[in-house]
Design goal:
The protein is built from four helices and five strands. The protein is an alpha/beta fold.
């Protein structure tokens, strides 16, 4: 993650550290480069990552490169934004949803 790109791409090796051991909400965008709807919501995920910096950890997982986690979490279509908190699945957003839907879903899990 950097100031220019606040969303990190995660691998099998970093999943435990960045997702399961994290105390703040972790929206994980499961996507693939060929997926048109994935490209449509990517800017929304990036925007939320910047806006909620320090309050959420937005991550991306390419399902073509590492399909195991998608299978483990029952993800059958992409894009899917899985929201985890303290390693527990809290919610999932499936498809190219509106900004309002993404915001409302993520904000349910923010600490006030």
């Amino acid at each position: 993650m950097s100031a220019a790109n606040p969303v990190a791409y995660i691998s099998e090796a970093t999943w435990k550290e960045l997702v399961l051991d994290c105390d703040i909400p972790v929206p994980v965008d499961f996507w693939a480069p060929w997926c048109g709807p994935c490209r449509m919501i990517a800017p929304l995920v990036d925007e939320r990552a910047k806006l909620y910096a320090g309050r959420v950890r937005c991550l991306k997982r390419n399902t073509d490169e590492s399909p195991n986690k998608a299978t483990e979490y029952g993800i059958r279509s992409i894009p899917t934004v899985l929201i985890l908190k303290k390693g527990e699945k809290k919610d999932a957003i499936v498809g190219a949803v509106s900004k309002a839907t993404l915001v409302a879903t993520v904000e349910k899990y923010l600490d006030r």
